[in-house]
Design goal:
Blueprint lengths: L5 E2 L5 E2 L2 H7 L12 E2 L11 H10 L1 H14 L6 H26 E5 L13 E6 L21 E3 L2 E3 L11 E5 L6 E9 L3 E5 L2 E4 L2 E2 L19 E2 L3 H4 L8 H6 L1 E3 L5 E4 L4 E5 L9 H4 L2 E2 L3 E11 L14 E2 L2
Antiparallel strand pairs: 1-2, 3-4, 4-5, 5-18, 6-7, 8-9, 8-18, 9-16, 10-11, 10-13, 10-15, 11-12, 14-15, 16-17, 18-19
């Protein structure tokens, strides 16, 4: 049988793929967030019982069945040492997943709103790579060390990032206005000037080469997508979470006599691909890079319960 694990000096063969795969699809649904996220303690999303059963069949059951079959025909029984080995395998998998993979490397999310429609649909399940952006050190939001050299904020300290955010990346982050998990596209970085006119995004005075035009709702157009930041005066006091003074204080008049927003240092400008139905940096201002959780990599499943069959054509799609 092909091994799915690694060998250690004690001679135990440690299988970690089976339980890690199963735990990767354990979800807790939080209706208050724009992104559903994994968490512990956990409860299963109803639509994932099928995937859970499939993965269990493909990984855990063959492993256990072959072991039992071998013991039966060899005339032996499952000895204490074998049970101890299985407990060790499961314990190691739990430690690796909850102690390293989930906090620092990769995490699963689900899309519950249409703010990224055109790229991500409601019901898409995606994997987010967390390590590139510098992940939060556990418990530092509650107890900060006396001496450290880490960056961070009230949400906790951060490990060093391996790369800087770039325009075009789709990121999961903590919304600065609410603290909830959001997912949007990076359209500009620090120092860029931003304005929106006639449903077109302008970066540094030019239509953004790839993201100038995104999904447009012809029946319910948004004033944010008609003329921004010009419209923020009209929206003052009418739009929830509007960071009026933060946006206004970072606006300039360009050489063409147009009002534009300058992205501050250590910030990025985030927008949803569904421009007419997205709460993004046009409302709550530029995003501090310390609030970024990770970059969306791919969709591994797509299904909205009660809305037909799963969208198999969206499985294993890279997110761009």
């Amino acid at each position: 049988m092909v091994s799915t694990g690694l060998h250690i000096s004690s001679g135990y063969q440690i299988y970690v793929l089976e339980p890690c795969l199963l735990m990767c699809v354990i979800f807790r649904c939080d209706d208050s967030s724009e992104v559903y996220r994994t968490a512990y303690p956990v409860r299963l999303s109803k639509e994932f019982f099928f995937i859970l059963t499939l993965l269990l069949t493909m990984t855990g059951i063959p492993h256990i069945s072959l072991a039992c079959l071998f013991n039966k025909y060899s005339g032996g029984i499952l000895k204490f040492e074998k049970i101890r080995d299985w407990i060790l395998q499961l314990s190691l998998a739990l430690i690796i997943f909850f102690g390293f993979l989930r906090p620092f490397v990769i995490e699963a999310f689900r899309i519950p709103t249409p703010s990224m429609e055109g790229t991500l649909l409601v019901g898409d399940h995606l994997l987010v790579m967390k390590v590139e952006e510098g992940q939060r050190i556990p418990w530092t939001d509650k107890m900060e060390p006396l001496f450290h050299n880490y960056r961070g904020n009230s949400y906790g300290l951060l490990m060093p990032a391996t790369s800087n955010p770039e325009a075009g990346e789709i990121l999961v982050f903590k919304c600065p206005a609410t603290g909830k998990d959001f997912i949007k596209r990076t359209v500009a970085v620090a120092g860029d000037t931003i304005r929106v006119s006639g449903d077109t995004l302008y970066v540094n005075g030019q239509p953004s080469p790839e993201w100038a035009l995104c999904y447009q709702d012809e029946f319910e157009p948004s004033p944010l997508d008609q003329a921004w930041p010009d419209t923020i005066d009209e929206l003052y006091g009418r739009v929830r979470d509007l960071a009026y003074w933060e946006i206004r204080n970072n606006c300039i008049i360009t050489e063409d006599g147009l009002l534009a927003y300058v992205v501050p240092e250590e910030h990025v400008f985030m927008m949803g691909d569904n421009r007419d139905h997205s709460s993004d940096s046009r409302v709550w201002g530029a995003l501090p890079i310390d609030l970024i959780k990770g970059e969306a990599l791919l969709t591994y499943w797509s299904w909205t319960p009660g809305n037909g069959l799963p969208k198999f054509d969206r499985v294993a799609r890279l997110i761009r």
